[in-house]
Amino acid sequence: MDKFKSTQKCVRCTIRYPQMILVFFCITFSIYSKEKDSSDSSYLDSGLLKILEISASSSVGNTRGGENIGSLVSSLRQSNSILSNEGEIFKDFQESREKGQYTKLSYSHQFTSSAFLGVKLSSNHRYEYDRNTLGNKGSFIQDRTFTKENMVGFRIGYGPLDYLSSSSYEISFGYEESRQKGPYDLFGFKPPRISSGQFTDVTVLKGNGTVDFRSKTYSLLFGGSWTGEYLGFYTLNDFQIINGTYKLNSLSLSNTSTVDQFRPIPTNVSLASLKINNFSGFIYHFELGVVIKILENIGFKIGYFAQIPYINPNKAGGYYIENGVINEAESSNIFTSASSRNLFNTGTNFSLVTKF
Fold first, then answer.
1. What number of other Cβ atoms are within 10 A of residue 209's Cβ?
2. What is the extent of the structural domain holding 330?
3. What span, in angstroms and rounded, lies between the C-alpha atoms of 318 and 327?
4. pLDDT tens digits for 268-289?
5. What's the total number of domains in the chain?
6. 0.90 cut: is pTM over it?
7. What is the rounded CA–CA span in Å between residue 53 and residue 150?
8. What is 27-41 written as a DSSP string?
C-alpha cells in the first residue's frame, strides 16, 4: 500500500514538472544503465535495445510545427462567407501546443537482433491548435481549438532506429487509435475593398463550438541514422493514412455593414450540428536532421521537415439553421479544412533520445 502511495506521488511530481523530471530521469537511467553494463555481463550479452524518445515540435519559416493528425482533423469547419470570398487566396499559419500533464511517450523494445515492438501512450493529454488563416486581399480568421486526447498505438518492424549508434536503419508499420474533443472559438474579418469605384461591405465573423473526433492511423516509416563520437545525421520518411468520424457543434454570428453605416445587429446567424461518418486523408512527412550525442546513451536530435497534408470529409450529415431556416447537410462542400488551403508545409522537430 505504501509503495502504491509513493508511486502516485511520483506521478504527480512528473505531471507538475514534466520537462525537468523527464530529462533528469533519462540522464539518471542512462548513467545507471552504463554502470550496470560494466558489472553484469549477461546484460551486455543480450545486445538488445530499449529506446525511449520524448518529443516536442517548434516552429520555423512560415509554418509552426506543421500539421499532425489532431490539427489537420480539427481544422474541419463549416464554410463561411469570408473563406468563400471569390478571388481571394488563403494560407494557414498553424501552431500546435502541448498543454498536457506529461509529454507523450514512445517506447521501443528490440526482442530479437533485428525486430522490435514499440508502444505509444497518452491519456487526457491537452492540445491547443492555434490557426491563423490569412488572405491575399486582407481577410483573416483566427481559430483556436482546445482538446484532450486519449491515444494508444504500436509499431513493429525492422529496427528500431537508434540515433546514438554508428549506423542504424528502420522499416516499420504502425497503428494508432485516438480520440480528441474540446471547444473552439474563432474570429474573422473581411475589410472593405474598392470595386467599380465604390467600397464593398465589411464583414465581421464570430463563432464558437465543440469538436469531437475519433481517428485510426496506419503508417509506414523508413529511415536511417549515422552518428560518430559526438555528431551525426538522420533521415526519415513517414506516410500516414487516416480515417475516422467527426462531430461539430457550432454557433456563428456574422455582420455585414457598409463603410459609412455600421449595423450592430448580426445580419446572419448560423447554428449547426454536423457530423462526418467517415473522413479519410493522409500526411506524408520527410525529415532530415542532425544528432548531438551527449553521453553514450543520451542525446538530442534536431531536424527540418517538409510534409503534404490532405483530408477529405466525404459525405456530411446533420443539420444547420441559418436565419430561422432549417437545412439538412447533404454535401461535403459544407466543410472547409486546412488541406484546401495548405498543400505543403515545413518546420522543425526537436527531440531528446536515450537508450538503456
1. 20
2. 49-355
3. 9
4. 888 999 999 999 999 999 999 9
5. 2
6. no
7. 19
8. HHHHHHHHHHHHH-H
